Amino acid sequence: MEVERLSTSCESIDELLRGGVEKGIITNVYGESGSGKTNFAIQLAAQVTSEGHKVAYVDTEAGFSPERFLQIADEKALDNLMIKEPYDFEEQTEVISSLENFVEEENIELVIVDSAVSLYRLKVNGDNASEINNELSQQFSDLSNIARKHSIPVIVTNQVYTSFDEEGLELVGRDVPKYWSKCLIKLSNKDKNVRKLEISKHRSMPEGRNTRFKITNQGLESVDEDGLF
Fold first, then answer.
1. Pairwise CA distance, residues 187 & 160, whole Å
2. Of 122, 115, 48, 116, the residue nearest 82 (C-alpha)
3. Which terminus of the chain has fewer CB atoms gathered within 10 Å of its CB, N or C?
4. Omega before 115 within 30 of 0, i.e. cis
């Protein structure tokens, strides 16, 4: 069975991902602040809405910029973007639990959650960790069901923190996003506007493969033909 993918319209990224982000699964894009996670999300949203399809965009950090979107797409595309802005973790749970009907009613072709863990991070503590982790897991389960049932891509962005146990960066939420996300993509800064994109986990692609791209006024663009390592 051929795997359907959504093009990012960035040649180097599409080449690495064999055509783009996979439909039917959660793709988790993670990295430190400023690594390009929201730009990646906006690029995909612009790509889908410019083709006349609708996108559900859950913005938990007030990070979505209409001005940035309109650098890549036009006003007509912006009309196809359905933005939801939960203000706390409980509201995020409500928004995600209601997405199933919303996706069906509005014929949504792409779901984005940017970020899946920022409000979780504000809520979780040593006393409620188990309860809040279960709630986060339910959110990811709902998103996974949407992706599979409707055969659409679900993109979540994930924050990171420095883990001394793991000797490097760890995803906020740890095992929860790792379990539910069938594709993990790590973004990191290389130089100025250049970013590195690396596959950390994928069910059919080798881990560690990476490429480079740059963030421009027109969106994400390939650096050069030698961007793939």
1. 11
2. 48
3. N
4. yes
Element (H, E) at 184: strand 183-191
Domains of the chain: 5-222 (3.40.50.300)
- Residue 213 main-chain phi, psi, to 5 deg: -150, 165
Residue 20 has a CB neighbour count (10 Å cut-off) of: 21
Tens-digit pLDDT profile for residues 130-144: 999 999 999 999 999
The tokens describing 8, both together, are 């990012």
Task: Return all residues near 91 (Cβ < 8 A) that are at least 6 apart.
Answer: none
CA 205 to chain CA centroid, nearest Å: 18
- Bridge partners (DSSP) of residue 211 are 197
Answer yes or no: pTM beyond 0.90. Answer: yes
CB 61 within 8 A of CB 188: no
